[in-house]
Amino acid sequence: MRQWLSVALAGALCLGLQCAVSQKLAWQSDAPKGDVHQQVRFLYPEQVTLVAGKSSVVELHFKVSDGLHINSHEPREKSLIPTQLMVGEPVGVNVASVDFPAGTDYSPAFNPNDKLSVYTGEFVLRAHITAQRGDHLVQAALRYQACDANSCYPPKTAPVAVSLIAK
Amino acid sequence: MVSKVLTAPQKRDSKCSVVASLKMEEVRGRVDLKRNYLVSIVVLAALLLMVWAGVANYRRRKAEQVRLQEMQAVLVPAAPAASADQAAAPEEEMKSPLEGKPAPAFTLETLQGQKVSLASYKGKAVLVNFMATWCAPCKVETPWLIQLRQQYAAQGFEILGISTDDLDKDDKKMNAQDKQDIAKFVSNMHIDYPVLIDGDSISHPYGGIDALPTSFFVDRSGKVIAATVGLHDRDELEANIKKALASGGA
Hints:
The structure holds 2 protein chains of 2 kinds. In chain A, 13% of the residues lie in helices and 44% in strands. By secondary structure, chain A is mainly β. Chain A has 1 helix and 12 strands; from the N terminus they run H-E-E-E-E-E-E-E-E-E-E-E-E. Chain A has one domain: Immunoglobulin-like.
């Protein structure tokens, strides 16, 4: 009984120390530091299983950070930088095309008469992929240019990596 | 049925065994006592450590709160915001580390290939305005800058537009196209002040230009007296221009 009590106390002690060292406060983030300047993140999928030799649609999910918007694939002004996906095709994989969603209208507070075509929050690209039998790693980069209510940020690329299993 | 009759020697053995068992009990009692002490010490140590952990955690949270309050004190503008737009302004109130220091020297080219140095504007108040053709808030600000330049040029005010648009340095044809796009923007926006290209090359000494538009107001002696990030209203731009004109004169 006493042994059990000692073990329980030791456990409680470790828990207390762990809490003292690692407890996060409301404004502290678990986000990796290297990702701090990325305004769009690739969410999922990390792995997809396809039918070998047959064209399949792979939905790629992205998220624009809160308070920001990025130009859609077809911004209304030529000078604005469109969102694009650059795909590297490994041997045995063919990415025939990528469907971009239509942008939503956005009028910035500083210029209410202006109507921009943008993506905010989560958005999905649909890639048409054909892969030969086997495992493949498809790497891509989403090029985007983000703005908030008052500022615009230089164009950036968000890395994308999807593991394909073609059976 | 077997009945046992106790004889005298058996009685003596019995006494011996009672004594032995009493000694064993005593030894056990001592061992138990030591164990009790040990358990008590462990319990006490555990309690002390838990109290210490709690106190340490509380102190750390307090320190974090103080740090956050200090950060908020830096971010809150000195004057109350006049409008909702101002209240929603981002981190622009954070003072630039360049303020009060000499503006980093630079020499960049115009679209026509003419070299322009900041040093050549000494004695004038200069607005160093980082912008890009793809920056929507820059397009809102540009007409104000053109007007303000006209208004204060006679007092010795100049604007240097610094384009941060990418320039292809490997492909001459693409490079020419990039320059053409900037020239088109300058023409469409009716910009009549010098626009210098390859602004990214001087981004680092200016603290890294993470957001556009970014403006540095340089006084007549070449010192940065104010810096803003993001779109600010025209009045604020004008106030900073006046400040730059009034400062650093002989």
